[in-house]
Amino acid sequence: VEAVRVHSETVVVVERACRALTQLSHSSPENAYKICSEDGLPAICKAMQHHSGNSHVLEQAIAALKNVFSSVNQVPKGAKRELTSAHVGNCVTNTLNAMRRHPSNVAMQRQACSALGNMALNSKWANGLMESKGAVQTVVASMLACMEDDQVQGRACQTLFVLTADKANLGCMRGLNTKEQGATRPCHAMIRALGRHPRNVQVVKMAINTVIALSDTEKSIWKDLVNRCGFRSTLEEANKSPVEVWGSKEAAVDIEKLWGKLMQKLG
Q1: pLDDT, tens digit, for every residue of 4-53?
Q2: 165 and 232, same domain (yes or no)
Q3: Under a CB-based contact definition with an 8 Å cutoff, are residues 109 and 103 in contact?
């Protein structure tokens, strides 16, 4: 953290230090807490601002944020969580700015979609900030820019599903489905991902879950989109069992249940 803070303008130091923080905080609540308690989040955000044009630095910095927020709710018992709304707000803002500035950098978009999902899931402040900062629109833009990458699609779908837990974000998504045109609508992004990547378990589960959360209104439109995406026909043409398609019996059962739930909801 000190290296990032003191040498925030030096590319090689920041990139390597953020990579080290990523590794240290991976599945480690203790290290995630230490990074927060040493004011690591403001240091990382400052470095991201200095190197906003360098997607490689941003990728490593966002990966560190992703891992810290993945573990931050599991800090050691009795330890004070060194997170403030300002820290979280800066993390959200800088991640979104990076996504907007480097829309076609697939590796960075993967990390950023996951980071936003972890922030929204594990911080009481982050989910509430997402709507006002345009997170939904930015994630949908990422899906549009990286349509062929199933990891971006899967992580983006998961983040959008997490965001539906917040009323403001849910309302934002429903509003965009009526205000936006064509490909920029969240509904089109979900269905497009489902149709293009029907064999990716994360894409399928998260896309269907998000559609279920969003489809309380305009069911006829949703039904038409789902029917036209080719999800079921692609699987039928593959001439494989659900277990062969999705890699495990558990995944196959889960997806079939979700699909059945969606069909029931859409009538």
Answers
A1: 999 988 999 999 999 999 999 999 988 998 998 899 999 999 999 999 99
A2: yes
A3: yes
